[in-house]
C-alpha cells in the first residue's frame, strides 16, 4: 500500500474572518511552523518504510499559571518527529517516550499537552496509534466510521496530558495534572485500500460529531469517485486513482476545520462538548472556540495509483 498525506490546519482565535493560505514543502518546516504556531502542533514524517504522524494540543489551562503550553506542544511535536526519523524500529509509544524525555531536559519549555501519534507501515498497511487525552484518531471505511480512539479525561474539560511543571511553580507546592506515556491508549488496525484516516485535536472533535465527519468524508470521496455505490453498499473504486484524487485529503481537511470553526461560534447548536458538559451536570450550549487541526491520510493500494507519490506538502488554512 501507499499512503498519501495532505494536511490543513485551522487556527481559530476569534470572530474575525481573515484568511491566509501557506504552502510549504517539508524542508520549509520553520516557515510553516511560524505561520501556524498556536497551542495545537502537528507533524508528518515520511520514510520509505511508512509514515509517522501526530497532533498535540497544548493545554490552555496552564495560561492561568503564566505558562505557554504552545511552546511545549510544538517541542513535543518536533522531538517526536525526530524520533521517527532516527533509528529504525520506532513505535508511536516509544517515539513519544523519547520526545517526553527530551523535553524534560529542556529548561526552556514547560506546560502540558495532549498527544495522538500514529505510524503506518507501507508494506503491511498496519496502523499503530498511541493516544493520550482528548485529541484523537478515527478511521472511515466504505462509507462508515470504522474506528475512533477513546477520550481520556481526569474530569470535565481536564484531559490526560504530558506535562512539565516549571521549577518556580513546583516550589510553591501547587498540584498539577501530570500523566505518563504509559497512561496512553494503544491501538493497532490493519488498513484497507480506500480507507481514510483523520488525526484531529479537540478543536475539531469538541465541535463536530463523528456522524458529521463521516458525512463530509463520504460525500467528498463519492463525488470524486474514490468511493462508489454498488447496490446498497459503498466500496472503494477499482479504477486507477488520478493525481487530482490524491489531493482529496486536502479538501477533506479543509472542510473539517472550516466546519469546526463555523460551529465553534454558533451558540445555538448541539455539539459533542455541550453533551459532555451536560453529562457532568454543567449547562453549556453551542460550540467551543479553540484551535483546530485535522490531518487526513488516504490509504491506497499502489496497484491503483497512476502517478508516484509526491513529496509531502503542508496546506495550511489559517483564520484569525
Give a structural overview:
There is one protein chain. The protein has one domain (2-319): Phosphatase 2c, domain 1, CATH 3.60.40. 28% of the residues lie in helices and 33% in strands. The protein contains nine helices and 17 strands. Strand 14 (227-230) and strand 15 form a beta hairpin. It has helices spanning 29-36, 69-84, 92-105, 167-171, 202-205, 210-224, 243-246, 248-264, 272-279, and strands at residues 2-10, 19-25, 40-47, 50-58, 111-121, 126-132, 136-141, 144-148, 153-155, 158-159, 162-164, 185-190, 196-200, 227-230, 233-236, 292-300, 313-319. Mean pLDDT is 83; it is low at 1-29 and 311-320. Helix 2 (69-84) crosses helix 3. The longest helix has 17 residues, at 248-264. The protein has a seven-stranded mixed β-sheet, sandwiched between helices. Strands 3, 4, 5, 6, 11 and 12 form a six-stranded antiparallel β-sheet that branches. 45% of the residues are buried. The protein is an alpha+beta fold and 320 residues long.
Strand order of the largest sheet: 2-17-1-16-13-7-8
Outline type: globular
Which band does the percent of strand residues land in?
25-35%
Terminus-to-terminus distance: 38 Å
What's the story with the biggest beta sheet?
7 strands, mixed
Number of domains: 1
> In DSSP terms, counting alpha (H) and pi (I) runs of 4 or more, how many helices?
9
- The helix/strand series, from N terminus to C terminus, equals EEHEEHHEEEEEEEHEEHHEEHHHEE
Q: What is the name of the CATH superfamily?
A: PPM-type phosphatase domain
User: What is the correct CATH architecture?
Assistant: 4-Layer Sandwich
In angstroms, what is the radius of gyration? 19 Å
Strand elements, count: 17
CATH topology: Phosphatase 2c, domain 1
Instruction: Compute the average pLDDT.
Output: 83
Helix content: 25-40%
- Low-confidence runs: 1-29, 311-320
Amino acid at each position: 500500500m501507499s499512503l498519501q498525506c495532505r494536511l490543513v490546519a485551522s487556527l481559530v482565535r476569534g470572530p474575525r474572518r481573515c484568511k491566509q493560505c501557506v504552502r510549504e514543502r517539508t524542508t520549509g518546516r520553520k516557515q510553516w511552523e511560524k505561520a501556524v504556531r498556536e497551542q495545537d502542533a502537528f507533524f508528518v514524517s515520511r520514510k520509505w518504510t511508512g509514515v509517522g504522524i501526530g497532533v498535540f494540543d497544548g493545554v490552555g489551562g496552564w495560561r492561568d499559571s503564566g505558562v505557554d503550553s504552545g511552546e511545549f506542544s510544538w517541542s513535543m511535536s518536533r522531538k517526536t518527529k525526530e524520533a521517527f526519523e532516527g533509528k529504525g524500529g520506532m513505535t508511536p509509544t516509544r517515539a513519544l517516550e523519547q520526545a517526553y524525555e527530551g523535553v524534560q531536559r529542556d529548561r526552556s519549555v514547560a506546560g502540558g499537552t495532549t498527544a495522538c501519534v500514529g505510524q503506518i507501515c507501507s508494506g503491511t498497511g498496519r496502523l499503530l496509534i498511541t493516544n493520550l487525552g482528548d485529541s484523537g484518531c478515527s478511521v472511515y471505511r466504505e462509507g462508515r466510521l470504522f474506528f475512533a480512539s477513546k477520550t481520556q479525561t481526569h474530569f470535565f474539560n481536564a484531559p490526560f496530558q504530558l506535562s512539565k511543571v516549571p521549577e518556580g511553580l513546583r516550589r510553591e507546592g501547587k498540584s498539577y495534572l501530570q500523566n505518563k506515556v504509559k497512561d496512553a491508549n494503544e491501538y493497532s488496525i490493519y488498513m484497507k485500500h480506500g480507507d481514510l484516516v483523520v488525526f484531529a485535536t479537540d478543536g475539531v472533535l469538541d465541535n463536530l460529531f463523528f456522524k458529521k465527519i463521516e458525512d463530509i468524508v463520504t460525500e467528498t470521496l463519492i463525488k470524486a469517485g474514490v468511493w462508489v455505490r454498488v447496490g446498497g453498499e459503498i466500496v472503494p473504486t477499482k479504477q486507477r486513482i488520478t493525481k487530482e484524487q490524491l489531493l482529496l485529503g486536502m479538501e477533506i481537511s479543509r472542510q473539517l476545520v472550516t466546519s469546526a470553526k463555523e460551529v465553534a461560534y454558533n451558540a445555538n447548536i448541539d455539539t459533542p462538548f455541550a453533551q459532555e458538559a451536560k453529562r457532568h451536570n454543567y449547562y453549556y450550549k453551542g460550540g467551543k472556540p479553540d484551535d483546530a487541526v485535522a490531518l487526513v491520510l488516504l490509504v491506497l493500494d499502489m496497484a491503483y495509483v497512476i502517478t508516484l507519490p509526491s513529496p509531502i506538502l503542508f496546506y495550511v488554512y489559517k483564520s484569525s
